[in-house]
Amino acid sequence: MSEAVVRAENFRHFFGERQTLRRINLEIRRNEIFGIIGPAGSGKSTFLRALNRLNDLVPGSRTEGTLEVCGQDIYGPGTSVVELRRRLGMVFATPIPLPRSIFENVAFGARMAGVKGRARLNELVADSLRKTALWEEVMDRLDSSALKLSGGQQQRLCLARILALKPEFIMLDEPTSGLDPISTMKIEETLRQLQSEFTIILVTNNTKQAARVADRTAFFLNGEIVEVDRTEKIFSAPSDQRTNDYILGKFG
Amino acid sequence: MIAFSAVSILLIITIFIFGEGMPVMVKYGLRKFLFGLDWFPLERSYGLLPMIIGSLMVTGGALVIGVPFGLACAVVLTEFSSKRLRRFLKPIIELLAGIPSVVYGFIGVVILIPFIRDHLGGPGFSVLASSVILGIMILPTIISISIDSLEAVPRTYREGSIALGATRWQTTRMVMFPAAKSGIIASIILGMGRAIGETMAVIMVAGNAATIPRSLLDPVRTLTSNIALELGYAAGEHRQALFATGVILFVIIMILNTIANMTSRKRRP
Ligand SMILES: Nc1ncnc2c1ncn2[C@@H]1O[C@H](COP(=O)(O)OP(=O)(O)OP(=O)(O)O)[C@@H](O)[C@H]1O
Ligand SMILES: [Mg+2]
């Protein structure tokens, strides 16, 4: 079993008075695809956004307990959030390309990180686009606006944009919720290929998707983890009744 | 209906100004008006070049002062301060737009003019003084419209950029500004319109000599001041020449607006 690269211990999160995550205990291992499922409002996104500290943007957001990435307490002193966010690339539910060209979108993060030189950027962009199987589709129009791409292409662009940062983690928050089955399949395919290089955390409200791609899956409910286990186990013989009910579609 | 009557009122005004102003321009030749250096209405010499240059200098100066300062304020208020502070300050800033221009002019005369005279030289009544006063006067317009357009940028753009490890300042510069560009340019165009059309405050601090200023510390007369200063007693051809001034002002504003509109359209991705 490979080492744990994310470790949450009694981790709690609050938006003002409201507690959104309760006593989260969990480990995510290197190079696994870790699925997170759960009904709306159960805190899945909040957990992801706690990992790259995107919640910090919301006034009144605070945490208790520890949340470690590669052994480092990310809410401890001395954490560089900018660096953290580069290490944990995030893809959102709605693809949000910046209103710029395809090339500039992919190069954006790398540029911000200080990567210079057209040749290096060219290579980085091409490489990232290849990994997301987008290269063939866009190689002849890298300078046209990213907003002209289809939804599925935009989402793969957002994935490519993150790969260009050379992160250690890829976090996806319901990345296929707005996509057609073919685009969804392409993304899932890409994730499987990326698994050898990255640790992937996939939040999904489509339980079948977790069953298809995740190695292990956590079931979140009301800000708590009900159950974490190997995906087969969660879907065939969950140890908690609530997990079973959710998977069978009895609520959520 | 209201839109229609607004347009027709504008049309009537335009026809009136052109009708009053054109004959004298035709009589002496457009060239005399545009490039003549001497404005001696009593001697039938109607050179408007000093006023044209004056208006452009003063407006340009106002933008040089007002735009960077206004945008900086807008950015600080939207990107680097709490919503509460913004909700509190924005109405106050907008209130500044409602202060009568005489008051700005008065403040200029009392504070700015002596300051320039004592520390920089010249009579104090100058291009510089007018630019500073106008720059301050256009601030509310620029700040408030820029804030609106920065706030209208989808939250997801900012988040997307920050999640990619961009700092707040990088996000502002690379994402927020380009996304809010059309609104920001609109604010600058409106500010420019206000600056070039402002009359009272400028008359009070500009010195109003109808000659081309040789430095920022020299007095200046703008097209609007020219009309306001002399319309009260002008008669006959002199009066018509003032309308001609209005025609030229009108055309300049049209040209500036078109240029500004075109540049904003061209740069859109
Ligand atoms: N910016 C915010 N400010 C205050 N409360 C918030 C904020 N974002 C989320 N919450 C609250 O936190 C709780 C968890 O929300 P979260 O977005 O993590 O749920 P989720 O599991 O991702 O749901 P979904 O499946 O709908 O995306 C919800 O009760 C929500 O109302
Ligand atoms: Mg969510």
Shape of chain A: globular
Q: What number of domains of chain B?
A: 1
At the fourth level of CATH, the homologous superfamily of chain A is P-loop containing nucleotide triphosphate hydrolases
The share of residues in extended strands of chain B comes to: under 5%
Our Rg estimate of chain B from Cα atoms comes to: 21 Å
The share of residues in helices of chain B is over 70%
User: What fraction, in percent, of the residue positions of chain A are helical?
Assistant: 25-40%
Show the largest interface.
Answer: A-B, 27 and 21 residues
- DSSP strand count of chain A: 10
Shape of chain B: globular
- CATH hierarchy class name of chain A: Alpha Beta
How much strand of chain A?
A: 25-35%
Largest sheet of chain A: 6 strands, mixed
User: Secondary-structure element sequence of chain B?
Assistant: HHEEHHHHHHHHHH
Described by its quaternary structure, the protein is heterodimer
Q: Can you give the mean pLDDT of chain B?
A: 91
Work out the count of structural domains of chain A.
1
Can you tell me the CATH architecture of chain B?
Orthogonal Bundle
